[in-house]
Amino acid sequence: TLVLGIETSCDETAAALVLGGNDVVSNVVSTQIDLHAEFGGVVPEIASRAHLDVLNPVVARAIVEGGVDESRIDAVACTVGPGLVGALLVGVSAAKSLALAWDKPFIGVNHMEAHLYAASLEDPTLEFPLVVMLVSGGHTMLIEMRGHGQYVLLGQTIDDAAGEAFDKVARFLELGYPGGPAIDRAAMLGDPDAIPFPRAMKDDGLDFSFSGLKTAVMNYVRKHPDVGDADVAASFQMAVVDVLVHKARKAAKQVGATGIVLGGGVAANSLLREELLGACETDGIQGFLPSREMCTDNAAMIAAAGWHRLRSDGPTPLDVGATPNLRLPLLEA
Ligand code: ATP
Ligand code: MG
Ligand code: FE
C-alpha cells in the first residue's frame, strides 16, 4: 500500500510517499523558519498563507521524486491535529480533495501519534513495549508504546514544553531563532557544570516542569551580567537533558521497556542524543534516535502512522475536520 502523507500543522509544509508503512519512497519538507524568524515565533496567519502557496508544489515534488505515477497512490493521509487551525485546514482540504479526485481512502492522522512512528519508520525491528520520549516545541511526554495504537501516558510537563524552554532561553540570551539549535551550538563552547541550575521535580515521579528553570536562567544572568552566554547555554542545556534522561530511564525500568525512543524537534539536541545513548548502554536496553530530519515535522511519519491507522480503523470519513487540540488516544495506565 502506497500512502501519500501531508503535514501542515505548524510551520513545515511537507509531503511524502511511504510504501507498506515503513519504506520511505520520497520525503519533501519546505520549512517556513525564515518567514517567522523576524517575529521570534510562528505567526499563525503567515503560516496558513505560506502553506497555501507551497503545498501544491511540495506534493507534486514528492510524487515526482518518488518516481511513481499518481495512479499508484492507494491512500492519502494528513495531519488533522493538534496544530494551528488555519494551517491544519490547508492540508486537510488538499488531502480530502486529492482523495476524492483519485477515489482513494482519506486517513486523518494525529500529529503526536505520527511523531511516535518516526522511530520505527527508520528501525522496523524495534520491539514493544517501548518508552517514547516526545520532546517538541509544544509537548514533553513520556509514553509507553505497548503496541500499534496502544499508548499509556507515563508523564508529561506540567508547564512549559522542553522545546519552549529552549526557545525562551535563547530569546532571552538573544541567540537567535529557533532557539534549540542556537543553544545547542552555543553550548558547545561552554562549561555544562559552570552554573548549577535547578533540576525541577527530578526525583518526583515522571512529570516535568521547565518554567522555573527558564526563570532561574533569567535571574542568574541579571545578577551576573558578565557571565558568558556559552556557559549559560551549556549549563541550561545540561539541566534540561539531565532531567529528561533521568526520567526516561526511570520510565523504561518501570514498564520493563526493551528500549527508549526519542521523538520531536528537541530530539535533535546533541547532548540529549549522546546522554540518552550512554544511559541505554549502561542499562542494557536499546536506545533509538531517529535521524534529525525524522525528529522534526515531516510527512513520512504522517504517511507511516496513516498506514497503521488505515489497517486498524479503515478510512476516515470525509466530514472529519481539523482539530487544533486533538488528544493522543490513550489507554488507562
Ligand atoms: P509539536 O510537535 O509539539 O506540535 P513543534 O512542531 O513546534 O511542536 P517540532 O517542530 O517537533 O515541534 O520541534 C521544534 C522544537 O524543537 C523547537 O522548540 C526547537 O527549538 C526545538 N529544537 C530543534 N532543534 C533543537 C536542538 N538541536 N536542541 C534543542 N531543541 C531543538
Ligand atoms: Mg515545527
Ligand atoms: Fe511536531
From TrEMBL:
Keywords: Acyltransferase, Cytoplasm, Hydrolase, Iron, Metal-binding, Transferase, tRNA processing. GO terms for cellular component: cytoplasm. GO terms for molecular function: hydrolase activity; iron ion binding; tRNA N(6)-L-threonylcarbamoyladenine synthase activity. Residues 24-303 form the Gcp-like domain. PANTHER family: TRNA N6-ADENOSINE THREONYLCARBAMOYLTRANSFERASE (PTHR11735), TRNA N6-ADENOSINE THREONYLCARBAMOYLTRANSFERASE, MITOCHONDRIAL (PTHR11735:SF6). Fe cation binds at H111, H115, D297. The keyword Hydrolase applies. The gene is gcp. It comes from the Bacteria. Required for the formation of a threonylcarbamoyl group on adenosine at position 37 (t(6)A37) in tRNAs that read codons beginning with adenine. Is involved in the transfer of the threonylcarbamoyl moiety of threonylcarbamoyl-AMP (TC-AMP) to the N6 group of A37, together with TsaE and TsaB. TsaD likely plays a direct catalytic role in this reaction. This is tRNA N6-adenosine threonylcarbamoyltransferase.
